[in-house]
Amino acid sequence: MRSPRLKRLLSTLSIATCLLGAAPTLVADIPVGDTHLLSTSPEAYAKFIRPGGPGKDGIPSIDRPRFSDAESADQFLQPHDIVFGVYHQGQARAYPQRILVWHEIVNDQVGDDPLSITYCPLTATALAFKRGTSEFGVSGQLLNSNVVMYDRASDSLWSQITGVAIKGRAQGQMLAEVPVIWTTWAQWKQRYPQTQVLTRETGAMRNYNRDPYGRYTPLQGYYAEPGVMFPVMHQDSRYAAKQTILGFRSEHIAVAVDRDYLRQHRVIHYRHVDDYFIVIQDPGLDSAWVLRAKQPVNLDPDDLRFTQEGPQAPGLEGLEPVNAFEAMWFAWYAFYPQTVLLNGQQAQP
C-alpha cells in the first residue's frame, strides 16, 4: 500500500509531464525520443543555467573518431580502466573514460545510426543519443552542475541528464536514448571481445594518461570531495552528494536504486500503478538492466544468464527495456527531487 503522501507526490509527477505542452517541431532530423518525466518545465531549467568556465566548444567534441581493436587497445588501457560501452545494431564500441573526460561528447555512427556518446565528469553520467543529421557540442554552460549540450543545426541547448532541449528552436523536444554501460575495460572486453575501442587519435593535444578531475580507483580529487562545485535546484542528504546510484525514469515516475542493495539482491521488483519494473544486476559488467512489464514476472535470479543482448531468463521474453544509467546522487536528486528511492527500506520520495 502506498501512503497518501506518496500518492500525492506521484500525482504531481504525472502533472509535471504536461508542462511540455504540444510536441515540438523536429529539428534537423534529430530523432524524437519517448517522453519521460520532467520535474519542471524547460523554461524553468533555462533560467537556472550557469556558466561552467570554458566557453562554447572550449571542451572540444570528437567529431571524427578513430577506433582500434581490443588487442591494440590493451597497449593503452589497464584492466581496471573505466570504459563506456555501447552495443547497438550488433556492433560493440568502447569509449575510454580517460579520453572522454577531456571531450565529453563523441559524434559517432554505430550501425545505421548517427549517435552522440556523452559524458559529464561533474555528475558521473554517461548517455548516448541519436543525433540525426546534426552533431552535438559542449556549450560551456551547466544545469545542476551537469553538462549542457548544443546541437549544431539549430544551436538549441540540451540537458544531458534529462535529454530535453531547454532553450532554442528545439525547446521541449526529447532525444532518443541508446543504452550506455559504465564498466571496466576487462569486463567489457570479456563480454564483447570483438569490440572496437576509441583511440587517442582525436585531433586534439591532451594528456590521456591523466584525469584532470582526479581518480576513480582509488577515489581521489573531485570524485572524493564532499562538495559540489556549482549551484543545484534541489538537495538531499540521505546519501553523500557524490555517491553513485542507478537511475531510470518513465512517463510518470523517476526511480533511484541503491547500487549496493542491487548487488546484494541481484533482482529488484518495483510496481508503479500498472507498470512492473524489474531491475537486474549484471555481475559480469557490474552494471544493471531495467525492464518493464504489464503484469507481474516471477523471476528466479538463478535462472539469469547474460548475453551481448542483455539478460535472458524465462519470463523476460518481449519485455520493454528501460534506459538506466549511473549518476551521482546530488545530480539525480537535483533533476528528480520527487524520485522514489529503492534501498531496502520502504520506497519513499
Describe the secondary structure blueprint for this structure.
Layout: H1 4-16, H2 42-47, E1 50-51, E2 67-69, H3 70-73, E3 82-88, E4 91-96, H4 97-103, E5 105-110, E6 113-120, E7 125-130, E8 136-143, E9 146-151, E10 157-159, E11 165-167, E12 177-178, E13 181-184, H5 185-191, E14 196-198, E15 214-216, E16 219-221, E17 244-249, E18 254-258, H6 259-265, E19 267-272, E20 275-282, E21 287-293, E22 305-307, E23 310-312, E24 320-322, E25 324-328, H7 329-335, E26 340-342
Gist of the model:
The protein has helices spanning 4-16, 42-47, 70-73, 97-103, 185-191, 259-265, 329-335, and strands at residues 50-51, 67-69, 82-88, 91-96, 105-110, 113-120, 125-130, 136-143, 146-151, 157-159, 165-167, 177-178, 181-184, 196-198, 214-216, 219-221, 244-249, 254-258, 267-272, 275-282, 287-293, 305-307, 310-312, 320-322, 324-328, 340-342.
